[in-house]
């Protein structure tokens, strides 16, 4: 499982470079770096610069962030039983590192969930900062732009693979994927929430 | 981008992370079993969301090929392998295309 940390860090850094370059061009270096240091969420940070670029105001940005962050409640609830040995202050510290990628690795690591959440979370945090900084100081983001489109589906497929468990898990993953595709076509307005809705639906039905 | 917006986003995001980990009491066994079914389904949904946009628009061919390459090795349950296969196929397809 530890071998996954290197490519994971590289993938996060690539995404960080794109974010850093794009955001710094529009908002300057200091706010861009501060966002990565304090928010530490690719989803929220990409959504924010996209919304601001399209003319949205701060209220729209905050409402969108609120909606996107609902996913964290589910991630936290899922991993909470695996952290029951950790006292509340330690869980509050670990919460800082709860992102999709660290969650996936922690879930796949079984009894070592707390250690893997921390380790992979630190890797994600550090590489996200390094990537952001490289983007801000002018790394060649254009060359990486195509790559970042491929990194996320590939990364999520890998995380699905390591958390699927048995045949039922694979089946639920396929069902959830199909449901998200269907929702994208039939209800494009719920696109942002489609994965969590689909995951909850198959978890309850299966 | 104002500084208060950055701070508000930071607070909102951290609160969403800490809420379930710290404030939600321990859940009953049945709820835990249901929650355990979520991760793979969620990641599969996120993968599909990355290649199928609103209205059914699909990603470019190299990105789709990357996803297919990653899917091919998914049964091996190795994140490095999925990343290597997917990005390898992406590189090849981009070069050829």
**Cα shape of chain A:** globular
Mean pLDDT of chain A: 89
SSE pattern of chain B, N- to C-terminal? HHHHH
Q: Per the principal axes of the C-alpha atoms, what is the gross shape of chain B?
A: extended
Distinct helical segment count of chain B: 5
Number of helices of chain A: 10
How large is the radius of gyration of chain A?
A: 17 Å
Largest interface: A-B, 99 and 70 residues
Mean pLDDT of chain B: 91
Number of strands of chain B: 0
Largest sheet of chain A: none
Oligomeric state of this protein: heterodimer
Kindly estimate the percentage of residues of chain A that lie in beta strands according to DSSP. under 5%
Model description:
The complex is a heterodimer of chains A (about 210) and B (about 100). Chain A is mainly α and about 210 residues long. Chain A has a domain at about 1-140. Chain A has helices at about 5-25, 30-40, 40-55, 60-80, 90-95, 100-110, 115-135, 140-165, 165-185, 195-205. In chain A, helix 1 (about 5-25) packs antiparallel against helix 2 (about 30-40) and helix 6 packs antiparallel against helix 7. The radius of gyration of chain A is 17 Å and the shape is globular. The model of chain A has no long low-confidence stretch (mean pLDDT about 90). Chain B has a domain at about 1-25. Chain B is extended and about 50 Å long. At the A-B interface, helix 1, helix 2, helix 3, helix 4 and helix 5 of A face helix 1, helix 2, helix 3, helix 4 and helix 5 of B.
